Each structure stands twice: as structure tokens, then as C-alpha cells.
Amino acid sequence: MKKLKFAFLTLAALALVAMSLSTPLRLTSAQGGDGAGRLTYPETKKGEVVDDYFGTKVADPYRWLEDDNAPDVAAWVEAENKVTFGYLDKISYRAQLKDRLTKLFNYHSKGSRRRAGFVA
To answer: DSSP characters for the chain?
Structure first.
């Protein structure tokens, strides 16, 4: 059974590599891009947080991003998503790739093995 599973995973990996090599990748300019395939990301502010670890000062300018409930972080994530999805939506074969990967990974499985009976 292990050999069969290994063979299937190897075949799936080879199929993905073959599929990625057979489809030419095209640079697309994302929303706000310069047209040469480069993306223009939103400005990320830097804070002035410095931690002291046993006498060693360590700067953490992006500590403010750790508070995922902050309005500043929500605005930054929204701006980043605008750039990201602007790029991803222009990939012409994105839907085909999603469908193919879904078909590859949605195979019938009997579930994990377990021991029957009472286990203390």
C-alpha cells in the first residue's frame, strides 16, 4: 500500500511539473504595475519598536502588523490584496490550473486506519 501511495504521489508531482513546463508563463502587469511585469506594492510604514534581549537591541519595525484587529493592518492587507488579486486575475490559465489541481487532489480515500474496539 505504501508503494502504491508513493507511486501515486510521484506521478502527481511529475504531472504538475510537466503541466507547468508545457504552459508558457507570461508576465502580466498587475494593477498599479509599470507594464514591465513589476508590481507596485503599497508603502509599508515602519515603527520604532526595539526589544532588548539580554543586552542585545533588536529592532522590530513591523511589529504593528502583528495586531490583526487594528484598522491600519486591515487597510494594509486590503491594499496588498488589491495588488495580488489584480495580478492573479490576469493569469489566463488560472481557472484551468485550479480545475486540474482539484481533480488531482479529490480522489477517493478510505480514510485513516484506526484500531477497532475500546482504547484506554
So the answer is: -HHHHHHHHHHHHHHHHHHHHHSPP---PPTT--SSS---PPP------EEEETTEEEE-TTGGGG-TTSHHHHHHHHHHHHHHHHHHTT-TTHHHHHHHHHHHH-----------S---
